[in-house]
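User: Quick sanity check before I run a bigger batch. Here is a single chain. Can you write out its predicted 3D structure?
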Amino acid sequence: MNKITMALLLGLLTLLYISCSSTKQEQSNSQQTMNEDDGYTFVATLFCSTDGPNSSSAHYYLKNPDGTLYLDIHNEENDLSRDPLLDGKIFVYYWNGLSYAFFCKRPEAGKPIEVRVGDEWKTLESSAHIQIDSTGKFLQQYYTYVPRGEEGERLPLDFYPSPKADPAKKITLIQDSFGRGFFIRDVQGEWMKIQGIDYNALPDSEEVIEEEEWAKVSKASEGNPIYWVRWREGRKILIYISEFVYKYSV
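Assistant: Done. Predicted structure follows.
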């Protein structure tokens, strides 16, 4: 084999390697994008319209992918209508009758919002009464994580010092007499960063704790240990929905 033939062969092999590497990178990027927007990255919250005594009833038309109507969620005496089609299938169902919250895909201008109802996709037309937040922002702003369990029992999830399920670094926490509660500090994909609540900093009152008071408790809790828990695995939510406790309720 002469030098020219050898050079041509090496050149072809180099081009083939570059092409294969580029294809693999594109596939990897595509898979990463798909995983990042798997329908749990954002939350769409539907609010009951209370824009004055003469406001008309709000209607949210939840539709199937083929455009047929799945459910008309509407205002009934300043409460959102109840319906068993949603019970247990969406993230927040009938909290005080004032709001529903759906996991959803990133909204696109001029297009319906794709939301999860159980394992199915439905669509909602955009509305001024629908608020879109990242899942992390939504949980940090409105919720705490309060795991169930009796005193002395192991808490239901495994805790880790970083968002990685390393058996050698797994931490087991035990329920105490008061009941452990955690601030949600961050959400990264299937992982949630939490920090123990300093209950001694809570106001001694049975009234609703306001945002300013929660901010003080959050500040007082900053010295507590930080953990990571896996809150979902693919489509399966690993935390009971009832363990996400709304901050602004008694």
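The CA atoms of residues 39 and 171 lie 29 Å apart.

User: Great, the batch can go ahead then.
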